[in-house]
Design a protein that fits this description.
By secondary structure, this protein is mainly α. The chain contains 15 helices and no strands.
Length: 396
Amino acid sequence: MLNVAILTVVVLAGTLMIWPRLANAPVWRATITPLASIIGSGFLVLGPILDVSYGGYAPLVMLGLCAIAYLFGASIRFNIADIETRPAPSRLLSALEQASSVVLAFAFIVSVAYYLNLFGAFGVSLTTLDDAYHANLLTTAVFLLILFTGATRGFRALERMEQVSVGLKLAIIAGLLLGLLVHFGQATGQGALEFAPPQVTGWAVLTLMAGLIVTVQGFETSRYLGAGYDAPLRIRSMRLAQWISTAVYCLYIGLLTYAFKSDPLSLDETAIIELIEVVAPILPLLLVVAALSAQFSAAIADTNGSGGLISEATGGVINEKLAYVVLAGIGILLTWTANIFEIISYASRAFALYYAIQAGIAAIRASQRGHSRKAVGFSALALIGVAVALFGTPVE
């Protein structure tokens, strides 16, 4: 019965995603890109990590991650608004923007490795080849496919998948939340809710949290949608995307934390599959479908983005096709030399450095505008971003 209810919710949510009045609304179209990127960054892998690492305090940590992301988003929103009114920046601001583009390009490279390693892990998770070796083989094959496509035909054909995968992913997440709500209610009725003790304490609480920033990353995409949307709409849509993702993430982590027993020995990138098997038999298959479509489309988007950024940052010395070779080479190297949790940490630290530079830019712009309080706040954010980049650690 629950399987039918979950499928019904998935279908209804999917129908809503393609409803013309919603799908064609400018504010929703501008919101869906950052929203899909935020939720796609770590929804499936984050739940078990927080549950095992932080125990009953996981929802507070989730709220903290979302709050930090929202503050970094505030600095980018300030920059969007200021660029609109003062399009000609100083030499210092131009240099910082150039540096942030280079850092973002590198962050995209690492994030593609992260997305495709998740793709590989989920791709073999329900097969008899469910091990790290075959997951890495699948990841490598997809890297080579992306490299071949980007170097020969470009990504225009593959980009058509993005809108479909976004709607599919959000619809399946709606079904997952229904299943978790029912399971939470059953556990409450049976008196089976539990508050597990945290596995990490002290300084490690903050350094691990810093290493998970990439799981709430993606809001910055609004910064680069200027060709299709004006500044007020991009600011509004980024804020809306962060509000929605915060609500979804906190509900998800809250339902997962107290209704399931955490097992540190079973923690891996596909641990969510084993956890939700007890909720409804249909959920593992749905989550694998969501993971494959979401990670592939996110990898395509970031590969495309990094190629353009690298070409622009090097003045065309490294063209987009050569940039794809660099990306695939680094990604395959990371695949075979680092585990997924290390890659998550690397990506988090790279994005944190980008956010630090953007916060620094916002501090300078605010100071030039005479907004001293905002300048101090953005400066503090820049220092936090640098600290995250320096001290973020992976899950052990």
